[in-house]
Amino acid sequence: MKAFERFVGRVAPLNRANVDTDQIIPKQFLKSIRRTGFGDNLFDGWRYLDEGDPSKTPNERRINPDFVLNSPRYQGASILLAQDNFGCGSSREHAVWALEEYGFRVVLAPSFADIFFSNCFKNGVLPIVLDKDIVEEMFRFAESEKGLELTVDLAAQRLTLPSGEQVAFEVDGFRKHCLLEGLDDIGVTLKDAGAISDFEIHHRARSPWLFDTMR
Amino acid sequence: MAGRTLYDKLWDAHLVKQRDDGTALIYIDRHLLHEVTSPQAFEGLRLAGRQPWRVDANIATPDHNVPTQKRAEGIAGIMDPISRIQVQTLDDNCEAFGILEFPILDARQGIVHVVGPEQGATLPGMTVVCGDSHTSTHGALAALAHGIGTSEVEHVLATQCLIQRKAKNMRIMTRGRLPEGVTAKDLALAIIGRIGTAGGTGYTLEFAGEAVQALSLEGRMTLCNMSIEAGARAGMVAFDDTTADYVRGRPYAPRGEMFERAEAQWRGLVSDADAIFDAEVVIDASALEPQVSWGTSPEMVAGISGRVPELSAATRPGQREGWEAALRYMGLEPGMAIKDIGVDRIFIGSCTNSRIEDLRAAAAVVRGRRVASSVLQAMVVPGSGPVKRQAEEEGLHEIFLAAGFEWRDPGCSMCLAMNADRLGPGEHCASTSNRNFEGRQGHGGRTHLVSPAMAAAAAVAGHFTDVREMVGSGPGGAA
């Protein structure tokens, strides 16, 4: 995983609550056995007018001009501004892979679904929970003619608006550390291999029926 | 010191290490795998040169992509080449890493959340994970079970652990019993309608009270299955005689003296009387009627005697806009009666409602009746090979076939339409599955979530109708 560095990015506003992962990446694209190739099908059902299929290239598709990400002013956006309960539904990590590949590195929302929130951190995408009032204000800026650019500073846990106004945000210490260092969770956990083995011996003695059955 | 909840006990029993930053390393007893969310995890293991920590903790079966008819050819019979590669990849990975798999032609193959409990592969007191959000199903066995992403699938394979932060405790307390004809599915939908699709976010749910205790283990699985639709990763029900009776004799469950030893431990899998929950929701189960979802989120639900809401009834911020968008997609008018919604296709199946008692309930309604001529297709997709065989031994397939239903082979099927089973644009479906999201069952398709009995009733009537008015009158009868 790449280390997460301070950056300045444009905000794309997606003003809809309860966006589920079926909308972020529809099921027909989950048949791939790879981790890449999902960016062109991010929000497929909203982004295109025709039905998506893994065999079609973006050039063959009919673009939905009314969908916010298709607006010229939001091209190159790297921050997605969303509403409550973003990423609900299916646990498919493909949703985060699609967002990341499209170019989003940060998602801002008043609340997130748990599994999606956790999946983001595994892929270098930073989900930030902000107060509803701040989110509404950001929607006003982002949807205005001028648009909105933010500086994202994870180390300082701070967003900076063009006006210089700053917004602090919370992030779990462990997840922050892993993002900043670009650490692989598995490598970190395996440093505790001894503790896991010790637990396993105790667990097996207590509940032997849990072991050696699925063969 | 206050007592502990069931969730607290399961958490404590699997805590490997508490870290200073509030995260914890939690040991995982059982890991279920299917073809869609595992290939990238196995690839990750290979790239890093890692081996599974404990091969015997894993079990796999293909379910999302498998066709539900003409199965004799196995993988070669999968028409879609991309799906075929994905199912083949699961076989290859399980073979390479030595993981027990029930492949497409195995008699035990089925939907992973039906297969696990049925085989005794998921047991009370376990931590159970799978790269699928409906893993919450297994909480019905008094287990801590939840869905994970693919990176976590790889993490569990490599370390047998997950890095977790403990959730809060919420109890859904039912009062009274469900009336005749009102099922676990109706209870689940009513709960989601009450607390919303984000109502359980950050919580583990425990379903309790008289109505839950009276449910069969299958019914409890239906209830726990839909915890994620209320935003909760995990839902669970305390251990009791129903749990013990269900588990006893399952192929991979402990036997004899070992079962007795396990059962003695499992008896403690209940919340202490003085346990404190961070939140509690009380539901009067005796007042519920069969439920039907009318929108594009499982919280958009009404009783069968009810109506699609008027937009003026929206109370939460953004709710009105959400309802408007949903009604536009669903092609419905505010205020229309639920019974006036016509159906084009019927789907009885999915990890929510494809177990033997679900099929019995649907067959009891269908017996001696015909699928309405206006209905394009009605299908029954059993949850597993053993469910299918059991139903055939009971003659249920003959009842369905005589009524005009299709009788299919096990898989996820039209719940998410990854295989060939799907809705056409604009079609309304009475579905026993768990999600009514836009396009979930096919591009432009319109899903209405209902119980198996209600789906069967809609098949016969051609529109939604109160199954309680059909049972006991005319053909079918109270079987």
Brief sketch in words of this structure:
The complex is a heterodimer of chains A (215) and B (479). Chain A contains eight helices and seven strands; from the N terminus they run βααβαβαβαβββααα.
Would you give an account of this structure?
The complex is a heterodimer of chains A (215) and B (479). Chain A has 215 residues and is of the alpha/beta class. Chain A has helices at residues 21-24, 44-47, 94-102, 114-121, 132-143, 173-181, 185-190, 193-206, and strands at residues 7-13, 79-81, 106-109, 126-129, 149-153, 158-160, 166-168. Chain A has a 7-stranded mixed beta sheet with strand order 4-3-2-1-5-6-7. Chain A is globular and about 65 Å long. The two termini of chain A are 34 Å apart. Chain B has 15 helices and 19 strands. In chain B, strand 9, helix 6 and strand 10 form a beta-alpha-beta unit. The longest helix of chain B has 17 residues, at 81-97. At the A-B interface, helix 4, helix 7 and helix 8 of A face helix 2, helix 3, helix 5, helix 10 and helix 11 of B.
List keywords for this structure.
heterodimer; A: 215 residues; alpha/beta; 8 helices; 7 strands; 31% helix; B: 479 residues; five-stranded parallel β-sheet; 30% helix; 16% strand
